[in-house]
Sequence to fold (500 residues):
Amino acid sequence: MMDCAQRLVDIFGSQAEVARAFQLDRAVVNNWVKSGYVPARWAAEVERVTGGHVTAADVLCDANARKPVKVKSRSVDAFPGPAFGSDAMNKFAPAKRIQSFHPPQRTLMGPGPTEIHPRVLTTMSQPAIGYLDPVFVEMMEELKSLLRYAYQTKNPLTFPISGPGSVGMEYCFVNMVAPGDKVIVCQNGVFGGRMLENVVRCGGVPVLVEDKWGEPVDPQKLEDALKKHRDAKIVAFVHAETSTGCQSDAKLLTQLAHQHGALAIVDAVTSLGGTPVKVDEWEIDAIYSASQKCLSCTPGLSPVSFSERVVERVQQRKDKIHSWFMDMNLLLGYWGATTRTYHHTAPTNALFALHEALLLIREEGLENSWARHQRHHVALKAGLEAMGMKFLVAEKDQLPQMNAVLCPEGVAEAEVRKTLLGEFGLEIGAGLGPLAGKIWRFGLMGYSCRPDNVMLCLSALGSVLADMGLPVHVGDAEAAAHGAYAQMHARDAQRKKRAA
Ligand SMILES: Cc1ncc(COP(=O)(O)O)c(C=O)c1O
Fold:
């Protein structure tokens, strides 16, 4: 394959034109061509100048393959002493020779993490800067405004917490639940159970409203609980239950909470970016998500948003919030509206990445992102059903980004997943808790939600199941998915024609 230096010459026509485009001396470009790579520091500029024809990731891979950066150590004189460089230190060295880690290329169609857009990966590999650097602070403001767009809110307090979705969840409970507060938790899968655990650990008094796994939260049951527990201060529920692929009516459940004087905490870990989440219109009080699902970013960040009602409530608390790291009043000094003072060392490069991931959503348009998730869900579903699979969740409550199907009778379900990963590099999810061994979960989230992934998944699964002797007609699923796409395209074309 042609190296990046040669590709640039190909694109611009000559070395002289490359030099002109990059405002460089011709000798520099000649050196790139002779040495067969473009130095890594030019990665972002190459992507910008070529309009993405040569990506920064290509430049970085090329440069790293030709000239890996090595850190050289100084002579032992710097650390005199009997132990330095001797066997005494080496006894702590790992037994086997360890080399740089290069993960394989996978197609990620499980419950998360999802594949990461190349633009996000490139952004993440940019040089580190300080978390109080004025350039970084400017980026933080943009990041907050992009998050407000994703959440459809004007809440000033909308920002990413350093930590995975579980930290966002805990942040809500730690700040909002004081010891003795009554909290109604609706559980219809794994993650409602974690909310319950959080209430208990905060010293709250939990009231459980349970629904069957695979069914949405029943608004009637919540209303009954609210009538019975008039002193309930908070209602907590999961909007998109990842363990089952079921969606609950966040707007209605929040309304019910408010009618009875309670605030609502909503888990939008799997829904944000994939299906409508409208914080202001639905009047949600506190909401958290995670970076590695429909936002297609690296794991480890949890975007949250809080209404003024929540901020007031936390500020009025008489007791000291029992987690220093999570105390909203302290973290406001870094992410709040005015000052920027040290709270903890923010994960700068991960935040660059989230900025880029959200920018991609802004460029695509939030509604288009929701529509894309729905379109590929319809095609995947047509294919899975053509193979005889049954969905766990009733059609009206299905999440497009998380498709849970019952494993066919008698199939070695773990073996199927292992073969998909080993032979096709395709990851799908298993069932959790009582659904372990009973379902498969096919994620179609963010950058993983693409037609090529849908088709690969159907072909790979059909082939593995047929090899295992199941009555699956190889090719039927792909045909059904193509049929579904064709129908949707025809409908879109008609709609456009009518609108013209
Ligand atoms: C609905 C839901 N809530 C919370 C979490 C926890 O997020 P994380 O794994 O990023 O801590 C997950 C993770 O899959 C989830 O799906």
